[in-house]
Amino acid sequence: MGSENSTWQTMRKAFKNIANVRLTRNEDKFDVGKPDVTFGMYAGESKWTGFIELKYLERFPPRKGIVKIEHYTKEQKTWLLEQGEIGGRCFLFCQVGREYFLFDHKVAQQIGDVKEEYWREFTLCHRKGKIDPIAIMICISALY
Description:
This protein is 28% helix and 29% strand. α2 links the parallel β3 (46-57) and β4 (89-96). The longest helix has 12 residues, at 4-15. The chain has one domain: Trna Endonuclease, Chain: A, domain 1. It has 4 helices and 6 strands, in the order αβββαββαβα.
């Protein structure tokens, strides 16, 4: 059985040998809604920083219903949206079993209230089996 912490460990391990990426786990109990991870990365002269909220689900609902995410709060959605709208790079990264999804701050507003099909249609990056750090870096850098 997994958790957000196991998603963090998996992400950290995937990026461990990528020299131009830094991930930091945020443990701030006073900034309500602040995402779990701060990132910094660079490619040549281009540099990016931002935030990633992590979520874990054991599996999608068996009857293709609404995919609810326990502990994905209104404050977290608001934080991602407000920071994203002023130019911050803000993302929601979800692990569902052995599948990984990356959403931008706008699509992240719908996650938790939509069906699996929406996830698959509007994800920036989707992988099965393991996290692909290069694909994530490309999605994050190409978005802006």
